Amino acid sequence: MKNNNLFHNSKVLVLGAGISGRACAEWLVNNNSNVYLIDTRKFNISIKKNKNLVIKTGVNFGEIENDIENFDYIIPSSSLSPYKKNKLNISNILKIAKEKDIKIRTELDLFEIALGLIRSKKNLLNKISEKDKVLAVTGTNGKTSVVNMLSHILIECNLDVQLAGNVGPSLLEAIIYRERKNILPDVWVLELSSFQLALTKNFSPFAACILNIDEDHLDWHRSFKKYLFAKMKIFGVPKSNAIPVICSDDNKLNIEIDKYLNKKSKNLYKNKIFFGVEKNK
Predict the structure, then answer these.
(1) What confidence tens digit (pLDDT) does each residue in 27-53 have?
(2) DSSP tag of 58
(3) How far apart are CA 104 and CA 98, in angstroms?
(4) Beta-bridge partners for 36
(5) What is the rounded CA–CA span in Å between residue 260 and residue 272?
C-alpha cells in the first residue's frame, strides 16, 4: 500500500526544542522520520529516546549551516523570525535551504499532514461525516479567551472538542493524543498566532476568524504589512477556503479582509459570517 506520509524515511531538522518542537519531533519519529532536534538553549530535554532521534542543546544555529544540505525538511520553531534584523532569526538557514531546495515546513503544516493521515485510516473508532471540523482563531488580542469560550459552548452542545495551538496543548501534542485514542474530535478549536502562520504552506480550516488587528510583534515581522499577511493565512493556504467569520465593528479590518479574500476566493467569500455589537450584516 502506498504511504502518503511525506515525511516517511526523510531526514528532518527541527529547530527549537520547546513544547511544540518536542511534539513535532515525537510525531515525526513515530512516523519513521530521522530527526535532528536542536536548541540554542542548554537544558535537559524530556522526550522518549529513539534510535531515529538525535538531540543537541546549546547549539549556535550558525554552526549547522554547513550541514543543512543533509536534510530533506526543516521545521523551525514559531519563535524564530525569518528576518535578519531580529535577534532570534534563521534568515541564513532559510536562504541556504532555498538554494539547496530543502523544504521549510511549520508545526501547522505538520498538523495538516498528520490530520490527513488520521482521516485516511479505515479503522477509526468513530466515523467521519459532517464532523471533524477545524475552527481557527487569531487576532492581536483576545484569542485565548475566545477559543476557551468557543470550546466550552461546543462541549455544552455534547460535541467532542479538541482545543489546541497557542492555548495548549500544542498542535502536535493534540494530534498524538488523538492518534493514541484512535478517535477524531467532532471539532478542533485552534488558537493560532501570527508566528505560527507566517511560514505555513498548507492549512485548510472549515471556518476562521481574525478577531482584531493592531500593530504588534513588528520586531518579529519587521512591518505591519507582513504581520497582517501572516494573519490572513488563518483563512487557509494556499487556498483561502475557510468560511470567514468577521467582526462587523472593525471597519478597518473588514476592508483588509475584503481586499485579501476577494483576490483569493471570490465565490466562497459570499458565505462570510459577521458578529459584533453592531447589527449583523
Answers:
(1) 999 999 999 999 999 988 878 788 999
(2) S
(3) 9
(4) 13, 54
(5) 13
